[in-house]
Amino acid sequence: MQNQVQNLTAEEVKSIQTSFVNKVYVWMGLALTITGIVAMRVADSGTFMGMFTGASSAMPFYILIAIELGLVWWMVSRIDSMSSGFATALFILYSALNGVTLSVLFYVYTSASIASTFFITAGTFGICSAYGYFTKKDLTSIGGFLFMGLIGVIIATIVNIFLASSTLYWIISYAGVAIFIGLTAYDTQKIKNMSLELDADSEQGKKGAVMGALALYLDFINMFIFLLRIFGSRR
């Protein structure tokens, strides 16, 4: 594919990139829609939400989290041996399970603040993704820095479970937003560049679109959660 790119005009290269990135956005949008619908339906289901709000609520919640992490790890580590259809099914399953776990946000924050934060996230994500797509600056160098920052946020979050420090809570929240702003731009540029290495209609191209959608989906969801910690109004 890379050898063929050398023989393409600038307009043809632009068309390939636009087509591939659009496919990524379609899969990401579908996953976000599924997550949102599932989250709202579960939140409205008093019977089903009992497993999250009862005395033993922690166990099923953390089991679901573990399953979700396992699905992401499976997709990332085994994507080469999967069919594009199976990878897509796992992505859809993950987005649905994520909707179940995110439904607890409706019990912590008001619906109005969740809605307003979603639109803030969508706007911020759109601007950052557009920057990553159109900038001429190579963002590869910031990828490692952002990943290390993400590891630091995860460790700090675990530590703060025991410390319960409000100061650390806000530091983590703002740092999380900054990290996922950077990752959104970085991942978008990475996906754009990847479009020239894959045939979009091949198995590898289809799997690449799904994995690109997964990356941007995770960026959006995590940015939303951290922004909700900042702007959300608790019940």
Q: Which strand-content bin applies to the residues? A: under 5%
Q: What sort of overall outline do the alpha carbons produce when their principal axes are compared?
A: globular
Structural class: mainly alpha
Q: What is the total domain count? A: 1
* Fraction of residues in H or I helices: over 70%
Oligomer: single chain
The first-to-last residue Cα distance is: 53 Å
**Given the structure, what is the number of helices?**
10
Query: What is the averaged pLDDT score?
Result: 90
Helices and strands, in order, run as HHHHHHHHHH
Extended strand count: 0
Rg over CA atoms, rounded to whole Å, is 19 Å
- Biggest sheet descriptor: none
Low-confidence runs: none
What does this molecule look like?
This protein is 84% helix and 0% strand. The protein has helices at residues 2-5, 10-44, 46-53, 58-78, 84-102, 105-108, 111-134, 140-163, 166-194, 203-231. Helix 5 runs parallel beside helix 10 and helix 7 packs across helix 9 (166-194).
Could you give a quick summary of the protein structure above?
It contains ten helices and no strands.
Keywords:
235 residues, 10 helices, globular
Draw up the topology in text:
Elements: H1 2-5, H2 10-44, H3 46-53, H4 58-78, H5 84-102, H6 105-108, H7 111-134, H8 140-163, H9 166-194, H10 203-231
